[in-house]
């Protein structure tokens, strides 16, 4: 009897889980400045990153994506902006730059940093992309736990690569 009940429950679970719909990515426009494609497994959130206009995440997957735009200042060149953006993390203990690259995303130049750092007891993996736009400078920051790095890192990069200045 227990075996039959377990079998029925297992079949019901597998049937329901196979019918789950995966949400497609959605393109979000922000302040007539930029658009970015958000993965379907992320939901709108608040208070993830101070000053960010776009904030999405999934607490179950521990994956987050934020975008912050900063008006171009005439007295600050892009390299100074990059150094200022990067400095917000350099003060953290056990902070490590895993990778640093020059990138071009939809015609805009930028810098990409892959970072590893401690957040309390958790070790986090972060991709910080800093883009020099025509209208503003942008920071696209996405992070997850280090154990999810390989799985979520590709999805994070796919989202970042869809960034477009409008």
What fold name goes in the CATH topology slot? Protein Transport Mog1p, Chain A
Oligomer: single chain
Average pLDDT confidence is: 87
**Structural class by helix and strand composition:** alpha+beta
How many structural domains? Answer: 1
Written account of the structure:
With 166 residues, the chain is of the alpha+beta class. The chain has one domain (24-165): Mog1/PsbP, alpha/beta/alpha sandwich (Protein Transport Mog1p, Chain A), CATH 3.40.1000. It has three helices and ten strands. The chain has helices at 2-18, 78-90, 149-160, and strands spanning 26-30, 34-38, 43-44, 54-58, 63-71, 96-105, 108-119, 122-132, 136-145, 164-165. It has a seven-stranded antiparallel sheet, sandwiched between helices. The chain has a three-stranded antiparallel sheet with strand order 1-2-10, with no helix packed on it. A hairpin with a 3-residue loop joins strand 8 and strand 9. The longest helix is centred in the N-terminal third of the chain and has 17 residues, at 2-18. The chain is globular, with a radius of gyration of 19 Å. The chain starts with a helix and ends with a strand. Residues 16-20 have low confidence and may be disordered.
Entry summary:
The chain is an alpha+beta fold. It is built from 3 helices and 10 strands. About 3% of the residues have low confidence.
Please describe the topology of this protein.
Blueprint: H1 2-18, E1 26-30, E2 34-38, E3 43-44, E4 54-58, E5 63-71, H2 78-90, E6 96-105, E7 108-119, E8 122-132, E9 136-145, H3 149-160, E10 164-165
